[in-house]
From TrEMBL:
Residues 82-94 have a biased composition (Polar residues). It comes from Vreelandella titanicae. Keywords: Cell membrane, Membrane, Protein transport, Signal, Transmembrane, Transmembrane helix, Transport. It is a multi-pass membrane protein. This is MotA/TolQ/ExbB proton channel family protein. Residues 61-101 are annotated as: Disordered. Residues 1-27 form the signal peptide. GO terms for cellular component: plasma membrane.
Amino acid sequence: MRRLTLRQLGYACVVLGLVAVSGVSMAQTESATSLREAREAAQARDQQRLMRFLDDQQALESALEEARAEHEEAQQQHDTLAAQQAEQTDQASELSERQAEQGEALSGLLANLARHSSEIRNALGEESLLTLEEGSLPPRLDEVEVLERHQLEDVVDHLAALTARTGRAERLSMPVADASGEVTTREFVRLGNFAAFTESELLERGESDGNLVVLPRTPDAIGGLLANYYQGESNVMALDPTQGSVLEALAQQPSLWERFQQGGYVGYVVVALGVLGMIIGLGQYLYLVLVSLRVKRQRHSLDQLQANNPLGRVLLRFEGMDKHQTPEALEARLDEAVLAELPKLERSQPMVKLLAAIAPLLGLLGTVTGMIVTFQAITVFGTGDPQLMAGGISQALVTTVLGLITAVPLLFVQTALAGRSRYLTHVIEGQASATLADHLESHTPVVN
């Protein structure tokens, strides 16, 4: 075996130490049957690697050069980090000196500005109409350590601009999402932080992205003011001082058609019966008015009897009777003729009266049905969410209202029909009695 130099022995020791450490770690991770066998196997491998390095002088020199290069690179990184640390230390010292120069007054001013700026940003955010323009909010100063002049001016300028917008009416053009979700650039008017609207619709800030969206429903009371104000024809505009709460409540109020639909099938039946009763009642009332006009003309021309009115038909029938009958027989025949005309004059009144009585009962039926729906919702979902019970409660209340609304006009119509028919009956009976009395007086002999 050739003699080893001192340098080679040093390399060998280093490599042997590294290999021994790696051999120990490998021996710990491998699943050998015996610790001794694993150790002997690792020593054998290390011995082979050591002999290979000793035989290959060039590989040993290459490994040493790589180790030196890595050491130099690590030393350069250390020097760079040390320089950065020194620079940051100098900056921290400079900031501390500037803070000390500013004193407590400017430090307190910076703290107040940072607090107010954060409060304004949190309060307005993406919900206020004042922050539609990009960069309209004041900057955050939470991470600023030394107050600069331009920062103070920036915060003051933003606060002044926001304050000015609160009392200004401006015409802007921005993307607006309609009810279907389609976004288009539209022109609108912004009244401070109170309202934003187009010519026919109110706008609000969206919850997801903060963009403007069309209000699902513009109240009718406000919709009539939008066009005139938008076109500059009027200076009157309704504002919501609650920042949208009143508008939201007004928008949720159902229209007459929506209220009618809340009644359900029972409500449809009640309204249908009410419409049917009104048609029947009005038709009969028009017929009675026409008959009244004809009877009035007939009373003024009793010498020319017409068969187009009940009075004329009664008198024509009286003229065709045998006048030699007893007065009682003539009166009975005349009463029969009058009674024959009453069904035409009193028709439709029982039907209208029946419908007027049925309507409230159907409304009560809808009330009971709605309460059943409400109790079923309470049984399934509990009382935590009132919206789940709103449908049944609406049906219970609306059907009752529809029943009463239907019954009241029908009662008026029935009363009008009864009064008109009763008046005609009295006129016919009175005129018939007068005609009979005249006939009896003319054929009764005078007793001296």
